Amino acid sequence: MKSPHVQEDAMVFWEEADCTNQQRIRKKVKEIAQVHDILKGQAPGVPEATMGNRVLYIPVFRKLHPITELHGKDLFDVWHQCVLCHITLWKEGVYHRDINPPNLKWYKKDGKLIGVLNHYDLSSLANEPGPRGNERTGAAPFMARDLLTERGQRGEIKHLYRHDLESFIWCFAWISLRYKEGVLRPRGSRPFDEWATLDAVACGNSKLTLQSDMTVPACTHEDDPGWQFIEKCLFVLAQRQSLRSRKGKPTQESELESDMDEFLDSLKLTEGWAKLSNPSPEQ
């Protein structure tokens, strides 16, 4: 029996029956959620009825809230849960490929905030044939720099796990620096506004400048745990990009699960991660 305090939303929509990719992804995520605790409550809706050549979907979800409402440790906790959900799905063959703040949600259960990786519209499955470039994914402010190059925009760079994890970093920076206690800062006092208007290559160059300069934004303080985490993450990104360039492999066509774990672990080892995951009593 459902708790009377659980809020739910229903979304009704028609989808072409031959759009089987969406159905396969929903089914796959649901199957994975049965065996991985981090994915409990993540399974998307499944078909309820059919009519002609179209399928009627009436998926019922918990009431989800935008991650931009959160700040401090709550923001980090939900963000981290979405990261863990994402890597679990990727290893199981579901590639999300559209990491941005609107797709990161949360709800409360038994007093705990539960992070939800939402919307699989641009996702793909590992066993699908065809290109795996950047031909139809992402929004420039949150995309990995590799994918914001001219080659990346032509779909010539394979979209890998590391690109999505980099997107998570840009999402955290976007939310932490543009919002104050869950409220969007006034125009003129928030960074990155221009990223939403620049073309992809120019946005990538602006991100490179941020990584190179590491200038503390005017809206925050250098001792802010959120900024310290962002700074360390951008430093890790710069190191990894530099290492690939020195090896003559600025891009790659494949990665092992050990590569994925190593990248995520490199973020976990930063001082900024430690401060947000284990805050002092004063914070």
What features would you describe in this structure?
With 283 residues, the protein is α+β, with helices and mostly antiparallel strands. The protein folds into 2 domains: 11-61, no CATH class; 65-277, Transferase(Phosphotransferase), domain 1. It contains 8 helices and 12 strands. It has helices at 20-33, 72-91, 150-153, 161-178, 200-213, 225-246, 257-268, 271-277; strands spanning 8-10, 13-16, 49-51, 54-57, 60-62, 65-66, 94-95, 104-109, 112-117, 124-125, 179-180, 183-184. The strands form 5 sheets. A 3-stranded antiparallel sheet has the order 2-4-3, with no helix packed on it. α2 packs antiparallel against α4 and α6 packs antiparallel against α8 (271-277). It starts with 7 loop residues before the first strand and ends in a 6-residue tail after the last helix. Residues 10-18 and 45-52 have low confidence and may be disordered. InterPro entries: Kinase-like_dom_sf, Pkinase_fungal.
Strand and helix map with partners:
Layout: E1 8-10, E2 13-16, H1 20-33, E3 49-51, E4 54-57, E5 60-62, E6 65-66, H2 72-91, E7 94-95, E8 104-109, E9 112-117, E10 124-125, H3 150-153, H4 161-178, E11 179-180, E12 183-184, H5 200-213, H6 225-246, H7 257-268, H8 271-277
Antiparallel strand pairs: 1-5, 2-4, 3-4, 6-8, 7-10, 8-9, 11-12
